[in-house]
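Re: that chain you flagged

S.,

Sorry for the slow reply, it's been a week of failed gels. I finally had a moment to sit down with the sequence you sent. For the record, here it is as I used it:
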Amino acid sequence: MTAHQNGTISIVVSDFLLNCLVRSPSWKFWLSLPLSFLFLLAMGANGVLLVTIQLEASLHEPMYYLLSILSLLDIVLCLTVIPKVLAIFWFDLRSVSFSACFIQMYIMNCFLGMESCTFMVMAYDRYVAICHPLRYSSIITDQFVARAAMFILARNALLTMFIPILSAQLHYCGKNIIENCICANLSVSKLSCDNVALNRIYQLTVAWTLLGSDLVLIFLSYILILRAILRLKAKGAAAKALSTCGSHFILILFFSTILLVFVFTHMAKKRVSPDIPILLNVLHHVIPAALNPIVYGVRTQEIKEGIRKLLRRVVERCK
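Prediction finished late last night. Pasting the structure tokens below so you have them in one place:
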């Protein structure tokens, strides 16, 4: 890729350098330990959950198919971000090619939106289960999950594809050091000598439209769920209804809390170290991924039983 020409001088920039937590170099080694643990936990827990749902016939239901989609998204997001961050921490491998940078940018934006959309569909699933239990099996079907999966993919793949395209079309004038651990669009486009207003406006518009609309719909779903629960008069019915929504609500809290903290610290970057938003952005790609399968595994009896059966099969084959 060729940079913007200035007179007769043309500077060719072949790659970027990720300037990851340079203000806090002593953090890198100590952060790499919990980050490695969370990465391995996310890969292992999501892998076990996917295999359990695949092999256990009793888990072949729409709710668990949606959970499988969430696990796949978590695995892809972790693999896209965390290995590169650990390579920087351990081996100072800061270089990343243009194509790799824009591919990472696309996957992060696309799959984060897909994860948010999956939470929204799961909230609708819980809404139907609580508010319309007699119609649940006729509304939430395998066909519904298939259509929801296509909508999740199409919506986010199409709307986020222009983020890396707009960024890749900018001219870069020799400066190639990204002040971040990942190829975040706003951090990359900052290096351009072009006007990046359109790039920034599109990024923020898509982010707030996709994530904002999903969070609003999730919030409305839980208002309707809470209203329906408060109307239940049978003994223990309210507690049972809340239990069915508990795992999903906890996952949304993990996802939205870290995201909101990142947004607020980024907005208040003059008051906090610039490394804090960068660190939170990295952690947002691994903490929910590590905790999602554990929360469902601990709180869902069917999944716990499926994991026990899987472990028994493994032990029997090893004998």
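What I noticed first: The chain is about 75% helix and 5% strand.

Talk soon,
D.
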